[in-house]
Amino acid sequence: MGEINKNGYLSVPVIWGDEDYETREVLAENVKPMDLVSFEEGDYGNVYLVWSVDVIPGLLRWNSEEQGTMYRLNCNQGATSGPFEGDSVAVVVLSDDEYSSRVQSHYLRWVLSEALKRHGSDNIFIGTEHVNAACHMSRDLSISGEVPWGLDKIQLRTLVIGLRWWDASTRKGYYNDRWPQALKELYGAVEKAVKDAYRAACHADGQTWK
Fold it and tell me: What is the C-alpha to C-alpha distance for residues 208 and 199, in angstroms, rounded to an integer?
């Protein structure tokens, strides 16, 4: 397997394929929203979060005359996979705490990457330091079992700016209608944790932020 060009991805996966992770084989028909699935072939083993599953019967299998039912796995940032009934899918095995941390960290990276795409026209971030922080965190936000991952005040403010923009974006409503309730709760929890952490950092410096 070649080296992953991480700068070549418009949106990063939840787990890069060159990281260590454990998987279990699950039949395509048993994959469900909120699962983390590994695209072992063609994408270096990168791992994506399943948002929804479409069941499509009567399709021809690739390079075959046999018809079958495809389970289209619609994952974050438009990544998709189309295994057929009876095919095996690699689902990542994580503890509950690590799962939450991985998914929530990825959500923040995604929000920042979406904001950066529109910064040129919408002037979302204030000053070079916030743009630089957003660029760095959108690719490499460190993960631990506890929010806010040891971020400094500039990084926290950058996240808050990005989240405020995302709250006002019509695209959030579009995705919100498609996310499972449990995923919305995870995303809501990390948004609150980041805003609380930034508020605490401001208060520690004698500043007021609501």
Answer: 8
